[in-house]
TrEMBL record:
<dbReference type="GO" id="GO:0003729">
    <property type="term" value="F:mRNA binding"/>
</dbReference>
<dbReference type="GO" id="GO:0017148">
    <property type="term" value="P:negative regulation of translation"/>
</dbReference>
<dbReference type="InterPro" id="IPR005823">
    <property type="entry name" value="Ribosomal_uL13_bac-type"/>
</dbReference>
<dbReference type="GO" id="GO:0003735">
    <property type="term" value="F:structural constituent of ribosome"/>
</dbReference>
<protein>
    <recommendedName>
        <fullName>Large ribosomal subunit protein uL13</fullName>
    </recommendedName>
</protein>
<dbReference type="GO" id="GO:0006412">
    <property type="term" value="P:translation"/>
</dbReference>
<keyword id="KW-0687">Ribonucleoprotein</keyword>
<dbReference type="InterPro" id="IPR036899">
    <property type="entry name" value="Ribosomal_uL13_sf"/>
</dbReference>
<dbReference type="Pfam" id="PF00572">
    <property type="entry name" value="Ribosomal_L13"/>
</dbReference>
<dbReference type="InterPro" id="IPR005822">
    <property type="entry name" value="Ribosomal_uL13"/>
</dbReference>
<comment type="similarity">
    <text>Belongs to the universal ribosomal protein uL13 family.</text>
</comment>
<dbReference type="GO" id="GO:0022625">
    <property type="term" value="C:cytosolic large ribosomal subunit"/>
</dbReference>
<comment type="function">
    <text>This protein is one of the early assembly proteins of the 50S ribosomal subunit, although it is not seen to bind rRNA by itself. It is important during the early stages of 50S assembly.</text>
</comment>
<keyword id="KW-0689">Ribosomal protein</keyword>
<comment type="subunit">
    <text>Part of the 50S ribosomal subunit.</text>
</comment>
Length: 140
C-alpha cells in the first residue's frame, strides 16, 4: 500500500518571494499570491499546516485593473456591529490612499477564515513604491 506523506512544521522550508505589481493584472496577481501564501504550489502541501512562503509585493499602486468601471464602482464595506455603523469606501479611494489595505482585503478573501488563514496573511508584505526593507530577498 502507498500512503500520502503528511508534512510536519519542521519539514517546511519557507522562502521569501518578491513580486513586482507594475503592469500586472490585480486579480490574477492576487490569486497567485494566495496560492503561494497557502503553499498549494509545493508538493508537500498539507491543508492543516502553514506550508506557504513569505510574499513581498512592490509597486502596489501601479497594478492594472480590468473590467468596465470596476475601479470606479466597487465598494468595500465595514461594520463595527453597532446599529448604523456601516461604512463604505470606494476602490479608487483605497487605491490612492492605502493600496496595502486593498491588497490585504482581496487576499484575505481567498485564504481560509481560520487562525491558520490569519497566520498566512501576516506573511504578506505590501509596499506602494519600489523600495522595501527586506533587502535579502530575491526577485521573482
Amino acid at each position: 500500500m502507498k500512503f500520502t506523506k503528511i508534512a510536519t512544521p519542521e519539514q517546511i522550508d519557507q522562502k521569501w518571494i518578491l513580486i513586482d505589481a507594475d503592469g500586472k493584472t490585480f486579480g490574477r496577481m492576487i490569486t497567485e499570491v494566495a496560492t503561494i501564501l497557502r503553499g498549494k504550489n509545493k508538493p508537500c502541501y498539507t491543508p492543516n499546516i502553514d506550508c506557504g512562503d513569505f510574499v513581498v509585493i512592490i509597486n502596489a499602486s501601479k497594478a492594472k485593473f480590468n473590467g468596465l468601471g470596476k475601479v470606479a464602482n466597487k465598494e468595500y464595506f465595514s461594520h463595527s456591529g453597532y446599529f448604523g455603523s456601516t461604512k463604505s469606501v470606494k476602490m479608487t479611494e483605497l487605491l490612492e490612499k492605502n493600496p496595502e489595505k486593498l491588497y490585504k482585503l482581496a487576499t484575505r478573501g481567498m485564504l481560509p477564515k481560520t487562525k491558520l488563514g490569519a497566520k498566512m496573511l501576516k506573511k504578506l508584505k505590501i509596499y506602494a513604491g519600489d523600495t522595501h526593507p527586506h533587502t535579502a530577498q530575491i526577485a521573482k
